[in-house]
Amino acid sequence: MVRKTKADALVTRQQLIDAAIEQFALRGVSNTTLTDIADAAGVTRGAVYWHFNSKVEIFNEMWRQQLPLSDIIKHRMIQNEKENPLGWLREAFVTGLQYIAQTPKQRALMQILYHKCEFNKDMMCEMEIRQRLCFRHENMRRILSLCIRQGSLPADTNIELTLVMLHGFFSGVLKNWLLSPESVDLYHQAPELVDYIMATLHPHPALWPVTLDTATTFQRQGL
C-alpha cells in the first residue's frame, strides 16, 4: 500500500470540501449525506471521517475558507475609492454580480446560502456567512461616509438605512436570479440593474460620476 503524504491528505481534504459545495448546492445541505460527498470526491466514506467528524464540520470549514467578495474582485476594480467613492460603489456592485454570474463555485455558494440550507445551532450562523461572502458593512459604511464628505451623496443621507437598502438589493437580485438564471442575463445586465438602485441614492442622476462600463472593461482585459 502506498503511504499518503501530508500533502496528499491536504489535497483529499480540499477535494471533500469542493465536493460538499457541489452536493450541497445540488441536493441541499440536509439532504446531502457523507456518502454523497465521498462519492463525488472519489474517496471512501472512511476517508471522509479521517478528515471530518461530521457533515456540519465540513459545512463550517467550507465557509471559513471563503474570502469576502470585495477581496476577490478588488484586482478587477478600476475606480479609485478615494477619488470617486460613488463610482467605486457602483463598480463594486457591478463587478460582484458579474463575478458570481461567471464563476460556478461562487454561484454554488450563493445557492447554498439563499436556497439550500436550513441552519441549526451547530452551524456557522447565516449572518456570519453573509459577512464572509458578501460586502462587509464596515467597508460600505466607510465608502458612503466618503461619498457624503465629497458631496456625491446628499449631506442628510441616512447611512444605516442606505446599508439596509443596498444589502436588500444585492441579496434580492441574487436570490431571484438563482431561482431562474435563464430569466436574466445577469452578467450583461448587471450595469443596468445597479444603475436602477444607484438612482435611489441621489436625487439628481445627472450629477453621478462618470464610470466605465464594467462589462466593456472585462472584455478589454480579456476576462
From TrEMBL:
Residues 33-52 bind DNA. PROSITE patterns: HTH_TETR_1, HTH_TETR_2. The keyword Protein transport does not apply. Residues 10-70 form the HTH tetR-type domain. Keywords: DNA-binding, Repressor, Transcription, Transcription regulation. It comes from Scandinavium lactucae. Gene3D superfamilies: Tetracycline Repressor, domain 2 (1.10.357.10). This is AcrEF/envCD operon transcriptional regulator. InterPro entries: DNA-bd_HTH_TetR-type_CS (IPR023772), Homeodomain-like_sf (IPR009057), HTH-type_Tx_Regulator (IPR050624), HTH_TetR (IPR001647), Tet_transcr_reg_TetR-rel_C_sf (IPR036271), Tscrpt_reg_MAATS_C (IPR013572). It comes from the Bacteria.
